[in-house]
């Protein structure tokens, strides 16, 4: 079986107009949500063989908080520039090219791609993956090349507002 935990970055700050979109940091809510969600998934038994992240500051910082909660060194995060501003098919190509020795990955990216991907795997409609939302997709396949919207199914979906008011 192959499993991908797709994560949208935590809430970012718009307080620094001089920063580019790529450089935007997390805001206070994002700094609360990212460690919480990482610990939540760790408590649910999630353990990735690989963490892949967009190198944008908000996505990479989110990935680093998750890595820490999962007992993985931040230096082990694989930064993929192609995830920033990616189309869903770009992300699927990246996943399908992974080594088959890996079973579980976490992938940190951005909307609208995360919501579009969720809807490729979901039996229902998801209007929006909120910031720091994470959805799990499982596929009963032996090779990443066979990981598609036909073989994968969204099996879990978590986001901070389920746990905070």
Key terms:
165 residues, alpha/beta, Rossmann fold, six-stranded mixed β-sheet, 4 helices, globular, His_PPase_superfam, Phosphohistidine phosphatase
Characterization of this structure:
A 6-stranded mixed sheet has the order 3-2-4-1-5-6, with helices on both faces. It is globular, with a radius of gyration of 15 Å. The termini are far apart. The model has no long low-confidence stretch (mean pLDDT 97). It is α/β, with parallel strands linked by helices. It has a single domain, classed as Phosphoglycerate mutase-like (Rossmann fold). 28% of the residues lie in helices and 19% in strands.
Question: What's the structural blueprint in terms of helices and strands?
Answer:
Layout (H helix, E strand, L loop, with lengths): L1 E7 L19 H16 L6 E4 L3 H13 L8 E2 L8 H9 L7 E6 L3 H9 L12 E6 L12 E7 L7
Parallel strand pairs: 1-4, 2-3, 2-4
Antiparallel strand pairs: 1-5, 5-6
Helix pairs in contact: 1-2
């Amino acid at each position: 079986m192959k499993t991908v935990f797709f994560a949208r970055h935590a809430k970012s700050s718009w307080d620094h107009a001089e920063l580019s979109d790529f450089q935007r940091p997390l805001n206070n809510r994002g700094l609360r949500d990212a460690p919480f969600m990482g610990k939540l998934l760790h408590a649910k038994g999630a353990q990735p063989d690989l963490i892949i992240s967009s190198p944008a500051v908000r996505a990479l910082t989110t990935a680093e908080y998750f890595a820490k909660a999962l007992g993985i060194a931040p230096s082990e995060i694989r930064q993929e520039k192609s995830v920033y501003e990616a189309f869903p098919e770009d992300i699927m190509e990246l996943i399908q090219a992974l080594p088959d020795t890996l079973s579980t990955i976490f992938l940190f990216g951005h909307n609208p791609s995360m919501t579009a991907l969720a809807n490729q795997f979901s039996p229902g409609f998801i209007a929006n993956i909120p910031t720091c939302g994470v959805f799990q997709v499982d596929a009963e396949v032996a090779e990443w090349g066979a990981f598609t919207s036909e073989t994968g199914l969204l099996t879990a979906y978590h986001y901070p507002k389920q746990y905070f008011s």
